[in-house]
Amino acid sequence: MSAHDFDATTPDGGSQPLKDYAGQVLLVVNVASKCGLTPQYEGLEQLYRDKKDSGFHILGFPCNQFGGQEPGTAEEIADFCDTNFNVTFPIFGKIDVNGDNADPLYTYLRSEAPGDFGPDAGFLYDHVKKTSPDAIGTDDVKWNFTKFLVGRDGAVIKRYEPTVTPEEISAELDSLL
Question: GO:BP terms for this protein (predicted)?
Fold first, then answer.
């Protein structure tokens, strides 16, 4: 099994087979428009523009499971991304990343890269420990802007917790592109 075995729901309710991205390095990110980490859209877009011609794509998945920070419709989310950050990488339909209704792609990503979320995440660790203590020590996505790096073959390479910036990820990509 690989990430290429899944389909993503497009904002209009259609389906996008992720096998269409076979041969590309992917960064799969759960995004939100009203989060303190939302400015990462700027870094993600720059990373995408810098690396897309080398076989790299970012796939954004809006999620409203963390503090209700992605309440909008698909159209509102797309407008926000375009207006505020000139996002050109694909933003898919809103999904759940944890729980009984988690999108199958995210169930797979979490199982392949359970993460290493601990006190080194600083303010975010303290916040999650207070608001969702049951999530600590699990493979759950802890907050918006968790990133999964997927290789050209669809295998999950690594999980980056939300406080890891796109700029920090950039250098690691060079060896894969």
Answer: cellular response to oxidative stress
